[in-house]
Amino acid sequence: MSVLTETYVLSNGVKIPKVGFGTWQVPNGEVAYNAVSYALKVGYRHVDTAYVYGNEESVGKAIRESGIPRNEIFVTSKLPADVKTYDGTLDYFERTMKNLGLDYLDLYLIHWPWPWNEKGKDYKKENIDVWRAMEKLNTEGRIRAIGVSNFDVEYLQVLLDNSEIKPMVNQIKFFIGNTQEEITQFCQKNGILVEAYSPLATGRLINNGAIQKIADKYHKTVAQICLRYVLQRNVLPLPKSTTPARIEENAKLDFEIAPEDMEYLNNLTDTVQA
Ligand SMILES: NC(=O)c1ccc[n+]([C@@H]2O[C@H](COP(=O)([O-])OP(=O)(O)OC[C@H]3O[C@@H](n4cnc5c(N)ncnc54)[C@H](OP(=O)(O)O)[C@@H]3O)[C@@H](O)[C@H]2O)c1
Q1: How far apart are CA 178 and CA 191, in angstroms?
Q2: Ligand 1 atom showing the smallest separation from residue 50 Cα
Q3: 123 given a catalytic annotation
Q4: What phi and psi values does residue 155 have, to the nearest 5 degrees?
């Protein structure tokens, strides 16, 4: 069985393919359509987009025209960070569904705890309102699973204390040397699946000499070590590429990093030059 068809199981029993295809900075139109089509062709069954990526239309078109049954593809999108009301959430969800041209969504995430230009301001109360709308959409069957992104422990705890349905996912920046241990461990203890965005540090890990040493040992590429590392931390990697050869390379993860090498990778710091 390929890692592309293996699944994690969310707290509500929904199965989620262990590797997702990232689409941030992939322009709407031919580029997004071709990238997602190619990813699906080589076996990816999980696609990650967001309203603000501006490419939901082409992502949805590639999914609809893939010839793969809808229920075999796991589709994630995200509520814009600036939307912090109950009604706004319902409204933007409909916009996303219209863009995608799909009947239901597999996973919907609150993109950030705060509006983009108000980072750090207290939006805890507003997130509870947003979450109520997410719960409604989940209960009505419009979304199979709901979660958050970029939430720290404090923000997660507020939702855990004020929700009927617990968040099933937290999508955070996670790569070798940046594993956000406090958040990751809190999530894993509370049955919240951690998804790793920027698992290659948006490409900046590719020239890392320390990871290259491990890659040479396993006859793999640095990208493959970075992604396999994420999987062995029980986290879900979301690699992005618009290059066909790399899309394929990033899916060849059926090997095992030995415990001592995981330990070595766990201890790497400053993996990305500022
Ligand atoms: N929730 C959030 O706030 C948030 C934030 C950031 C990202 N994300 C999600 O996470 C996904 C991944 O993160 P990311 O886009 O930052 O980047 P990433 O997957 O860490 O890295 C992508 C970059 O690495 C290059 N690359 C990919 N595979 C490679 C390989 N095998 N060898 C060499 N270079 C390779 C890509 O180039 P080419 O494309 O040119 O091949 C691209 O420049 C996003 O697309 C998005 O879906 C979410």
Answers
A1: 21
A2: 47
A3: no
A4: -70, -35
Minimum CA distance residue for ligand 1 atom 14: 198
pLDDT digits (tens, 9 = 90+) for 13-43: 999 999 999 999 999 999 999 999 999 999 9
Domains and CATH numbers, the chain: 3-266 (3.20.20.100)
State the closest ligand 1 atom to the C-alpha of 223, by its place in the atom list counted from 1.
31
**Distance between CA atoms of 184 and 113, rounded to whole angstroms?**
17
Number of H-type helices and E-type strands within the chain: 10, 10
Q: How far is the CA of 179 from the centre of ligand 1 (A)?
A: 16
What's the pTM value of the predicted model, to 2 decimals?
A: 0.98
* 242: Cα within 13 Å, side-chain hemisphere: 14
* Tokens describing residue 121: 């301001």
Q: 166-204 pLDDT, tens per residue?
A: 999 999 999 999 999 999 999 999 999 999 999 999 999
Catalytic residue, from 53, 108, 123, 229: name it: 53
Q: Where are the alpha helices (DSSP H) in 190-243?
A: 209-218, 222-232
State the distance from the centre of ligand 1 to the C-alpha of 84, rounded, in angstroms.
27
The Cα 135–Cα 226 span in angstroms is: 34
Cβ proximity of 108 and 93 under 8 Å: yes
- Taking the CA of residue 241 as reference, the ligand 1 atom at the shortest distance is 39
